[in-house]
Write a structure and sequence with these properties.
Distance between the termini of chain A: 47 Å
Shape of chain A: globular
Number of strands of chain A: 14
Strand content of chain A: 15-25%
Oligomer: homodimer
Largest sheet of chain A: 10 strands, mixed
Number of helices of chain A: 11
Order of helices and strands of chain A: EEEHEHEEEEEHEHHEHHEEEHHHH
Radius of gyration of chain A: 18 Å
């Protein structure tokens, strides 16, 4: 089963307290597609300008990412620049230039009309509707959102939620969307808006998964040194969606969803070890499997051996 | 094996966005002792004034808490008053009256000279040294700290850390003590100061356990309604220490420590469901066992079923 990833492809300039790098491969769809490519076949739909380095396209191709849906437009590629604060938990956006992304209309390559998994990243809800309108019975649809759309496009976002199987968002967005301080209440409230599954990302504190079948709490990998948090959420979503798409099954089970959340967390933990997608370039399936096992070890404990 | 709990016994006035209650049973040793009493025999060392209600003493006795070390002094009991903000994650201290606690010198009842487990809560490091000086070979010593002692008594705190097996503190205190933003780095740095084991409490995000044998991440129970967070950390520490003391063994193992962290988390999750120690008054061993099992279910996932 293939995964359709639709979203932004960007050139990023990122400053951390340690270093600054310009014109890095970035964008939510780039991170998600490469992360997912470790698990499944990926079709990437996005747009780049005529300044986009051929080397990045070659890298996507080397990851077996299908680029039939990659549009090349006249003009400059979407650019984002951000600066992280000393604790790397917060950041300021220094500049955003939408460039060719401003007039991007996602159009699927003909071969994509079959029902793949879909994952749409950081696009305006109206565009996300447009993507879904073109699909015939996608098997499992994952959306994420960002604070901007909650502020300026809430009605479209709410109608979108009725069309998706899973929403991925961070803790601040969950509170903003529901006006609830308890993440537990917020997660359940978002489920009531449509998605069967809700994943609430908590950065250094891991992730909560809300499902009709139950609740899952996944810790974060204990990294001592984080070099660049950019793309962590997108790498998480890509790993999660990629693992689900790799399962050649009808309905997705809660057990599989929990494994998918762990795979997403594993991929995000690698991604923040270096700038841009650099760490993913050298990542191996054996390293992924080893870190998955570490996640298992660090979160397990014995069942009751005696009555309390 | 019995557990010695030394610390404050207070009458609290607590205001939340929902309600306000005055003259509640409080104090770190009260919470820790009652929480531990669900697992083991407890000796409580503390001081109360002549205004301390007999009903509270009767309640300790009903929990089989040994009160031979409870001093009654002329004057008023230690009083604390606090107000929680709307999200219940932060609070302001409105007033603190040390009263009889100001001149408290912990003295063990003669029967306590045997080597029990020790747990000292929120006392000045000098007093904690004094307690340890009176002990003959305690089996396992747990200390906690608070931001105040990091600010005003850091040298005594640092020398104390060399005498304890485990330090329990919250995320803010861990960062303050080490001047490190990464909780992972902070936890490891605190281990290097003395304690073999360090538990970093993260409130709604659970708890991290650092051990020589490895790392354990424990999620928080998904409570939808929190009524009063007061005493959550002390109830956590009491449950953890009480479970360890209930194990009639020589050395404490990493497996047991992880279970103890889960038991502590279970006890804290109950405690915040009502003001003061009200929820613990009706709590049953069966409810504790059920919630322990829920913790296990919400944090487990399947091992790798295929290569990534």
């Amino acid at each position: 089963m293939s995964l359709l990833v639709v979203g932004s492809i960007a050139l990023d300039t990122v400053k951390t307290p340690i270093a600054e790098h310009a014109d890095l491969l970035g964008g939510s769809a780039s991170y998600a597609a490469v992360s997912a490519s470790f698990f499944t076949a990926v079709n990437l739909v996005g747009v780049v300008g005529d300044d986009f380095p051929q080397g990045h396209i070659d890298y996507f191709a080397s990851r077996k990412v299908d680029l039939a849906g990659l549009q090349k437009a006249k003009g400059k590629t979407f650019r984002w620049s951000g600066e992280y604060h000393w604790d790397l938990n917060t950041r300021d956006t220094r500049s955003v230039e939408l460039n060719v992304f401003e007039h991007f209309t996602p159009t699927h390559a003909p071969g994509y009309a079959a029902p793949p998994d879909v994952r749409r990243a950081h696009m305006a809800p109206a565009l996300q509707h447009h993507v879904l309108d073109q699909m015939e019975k996608p098997r499992f649809v994952i959306a994420d959102t960002m604070d901007l759309w909650i502020n300026i496009a809430k009605p479209e976002l709410l109608s979108l939620l009725k069309r998706v199987d899973m929403l991925i968002l961070n803790d601040g967005e969950a509170r903003q969307l529901t006006a609830m301080t308890s993440l537990i209440k917020a997660g359940r409230a978002i489920q009531a808006l449509g998605p069967r599954y809700v994943a609430v990302k908590k950065g250094e504190h891991g992730c909560l998964l809300f499902a009709p079948e139950g609740f899952f709490s996944c810790g974060a990998y204990p990294l001592e040194d984080i070099h660049d948090p950019t793309g962590a959420g997108d790498t998480f979503a890509g790993g999660l969606a990629g693992y689900l798409a790799s399962l050649d099954l009808g309905a997705v089970t809660f057990d599989q969803l929990r494994q998918a959340v762990v795979y997403g967390s594993v991929m995000a933990s690698f991604n923040v070890e270096a700038f841009s997608l650099e760490r993913l370039r050298t990542l191996t399936p054996v390293q992924i499997a080893e870190r998955y096992t570490t996640f298992k070890l660090m979160s397990q404990f014995e069942a009751l051996s005696q009555a309390a």
